Amino acid sequence: MRVKKAMLRDVGTRHSEFVNIVRSIRQSLLEVAGANADEFTTVPVQGSGTYAVEATVATAFSNIPGKVLILENGSYGKRIASICSKWGVETEIITFPETEMVDPSVVDSVLSLRENVIGVAMVHCETSTGVINPIGEVGEVVKRRLPDSTFFVDAMSSFGAIPLLMTNIDFMVSSANKCLQGVPGFSYVIAKKSKLNKLNGNCRSLVLDLAAQVDVLDNTGQFRFTPPTHAMLAFKEALTEFHEEGGVLGRSKRYSENASIIRCGMESMGFKTLLDHDLHPQSYIITSFYYPATSKFVFENFYEKLSRTGHVIYPGQVSTAKCFRIGTIGHLYPDDMQSLIDAIRNVCHDIEV
Q1: CA-based diameter of the chain, in Å?
Q2: 9 among the known binding-site residues?
Q3: Among 210, 244, 278, where does a domain finish?
Q4: Which of 322, 48, 338 shows the shortest CA–CA distance to 176?
Q5: Which positions bind substrate (predicted)?
Q6: CATH code, domain with 195
Q7: How far is CA 29 from the centre of its chain?
Q8: pLDDT surpassing 90 at residue 278
Q9: With CB atoms counted within 10 Å of each terminal CB, which end of the chain scores lower, N or C?
Q10: How many Cβ atoms sit within 10 Å of the Cβ of residue 232?
């Protein structure tokens, strides 16, 4: 509620108070990432997380000879590939099974045989399944094989809740409304200055140009175009709550407990998880469950009845199995998880599943 209340006032986009808020947010995000301000910078981007993904592709990869290797094991890896295609970026997609992590040894083998690779892109938390990919190990491989290449990580649904090291990452993107628990309205890129500074004038988009965006932010403290003031007021308060909870470790502890309650409760009703969570211990962001093996279970009916109880879940995004997903992040606590389990149990009884 504190985050929502923070939006109940107006602030001018050019006012010194807002300029200071933006400066504070940019610095705080570096601290959450454990990134040195001499080496990295934060570039806020108006729009959802996908805007930041496209801004990174448009700034770091378009207009540059060579190809980008995309490590894909789900819908959000495919989205990066789609964005690259729109921008005419040459890509090679290395596909892994949806229920498995990206394998660093495979990446190592592929990179040893490739030439003219300018970058590698991957998703940290593949939200279509819940798989957490080993970005640390992959980053080490990328920089050992191709020290001058650009390593780009989509950490949309993991940043702030799953520990990560920025050591080998050149561009990392996330969004205000995921694990840091702000509201939708803007996303951000944490970029290595040595990379970004070389990209002035490279982007063919006006609004998605990260180099131009950070140049104006650094020199004036202001956005080039109208920023989402209320979303940023909310995010400043969300960062305060984040630190009060104990930062990344505190948040991951609560999310892990949430996920454990959901999985235990669902398994007690006979639902089976898509992933073997003994093999995916960090997968506490979202959990995919198989549909029950009965014709009485119709997801649309199940979803509608559940939503009437005030509980909303996600449809599946797995291409090889019929699943639905339950997210366990956000301003949600163990009591909320138990409430959902009770509601699902009642709905299942109602539809005779």
Answers
A1: 63
A2: no
A3: 244
A4: 48
A5: 325
A6: 3.40.640.10
A7: 14
A8: no
A9: N
A10: 25
Residues 151, 273 share a domain: no
Shared domain check, 340 and 197? no
Amino acid at 25: I
134 and 72 within one domain: yes
Same-domain check for residues 222 and 234: yes
**Is residue 281 domain-shared with residue 216, that is, in the same domain?**
no
Q: Which two tokens stand for residue 115?
A: 């030439």
Mean pLDDT, to the nearest integer, of 140-150?
97
**pLDDT band, residue 116 (cuts 50/70/90):** very high
Give yes or no for a contact between 60 and 195, defined as CB atoms under 8 angstroms apart: yes
Residue 276's pLDDT is 87
253/211 same-domain check: no
Give the pLDDT confidence score for residue 316 in this predicted structure.
Answer: 85
| Residue 315: burial class (beta carbons within 10 Å; 0-12, 13-18, 19+) | exposed
Q: How many domains would you assign to the chain?
A: 2
- CA-to-CA dists, residue 230 to 13, 49, 181, 184, 242, angstroms: 10, 17, 14, 10, 18
What is the strand order of the sheet 323-327 is part of? 286-290, 323-327, 314-315
